[in-house]
Specification:
CATH topology: Endonuclease III, domain 1
CATH superfamily: Hypothetical protein, domain 2
Order of helices and strands: HHHHHHHEHHEH
Strand order of the largest sheet: 1-2
């Protein structure tokens, strides 16, 4: 009889959530486009549970041309109408505009020689993930001073739906911080990934 590994409690028994926790959450991401995609998806999550977005992620990718900033930045009223009619995603004018505007900002940064990944990871000491040591007893914060700093910097550039709670969830997801509980089997694995860069 095999025993299940000890995980963080939040994936519960949902197979899609468990797979996300075991394979993606907390893995350091350095690709600029992928970091931007995740930031957009976390923006769409505002006011919702992440599992809602996770279940619709493939639909989002199809609807937003694979989150290709070049394509999304050119979206006009016809595309906005198409997205608002798409039941496979979260239909919100403000969030759709956030994604389109974010693509334009992403490209503007790139065109001015500022890499999105370097900008994001520039907030981290030596560009490496923070290795937190949270336990079931200590709990995990929903935001930190660092998340507030990153949030302010993103807002200053014009990004929307980037409050400190959303930004911290994004930082956890893309591995800027390792918030797997120390009791979780993924904590040590993710920690090793962060040290290997």
């Amino acid at each position: 009889m095999t025993t299940s590994p000890i995980r963080c409690p939040w994936p519960r028994e949902d197979p899609q959530y468990v797979a996300y926790h075991d394979d993606e959450w907390g893995v350091p991401e350095y690709d600029s486009r992928a970091l931007w995609e995740k930031l957009v998806l976390d923006g769409f999550q505002a006011g919702l549970a992440w599992i809602t977005i996770l279940r619709k992620r493939d639909n989002f990718r199809a609807a937003f041309d694979g989150f290709d900033p070049e394509k999304v930045a050119r979206y006009g009223e016809k595309d906005r109408a198409r997205l608002m009619a798409d039941a496979g995603i979260i239909r919100s004018n403000a969030k759709i505009d956030m994604a389109i505007n974010g693509a334009k900002l992403f490209l503007d940064m790139r065109d001015r020689g500022e890499d999105f990944s370097e900008f994001c990871w520039g907030f981290m000491p030596q560009g490496r993930p923070l290795q937190n040591r949270f336990t079931p007893e200590s709990g995990i914060p929903t935001q930190t001073e660092l998340a507030l700093e990153v949030s302010r910097a993103l807002k200053k550039k014009g990004f929307k739906f980037v409050g400190p709670v959303i930004v911290y969830a994004w930082m956890e997801a893309v591995g800027m911080v390792n918030d797997h509980l120390t009791t979780c089997f993924r904590h040590a694995e993710v920690e090793a990934m962060g040290k290997s860069r």
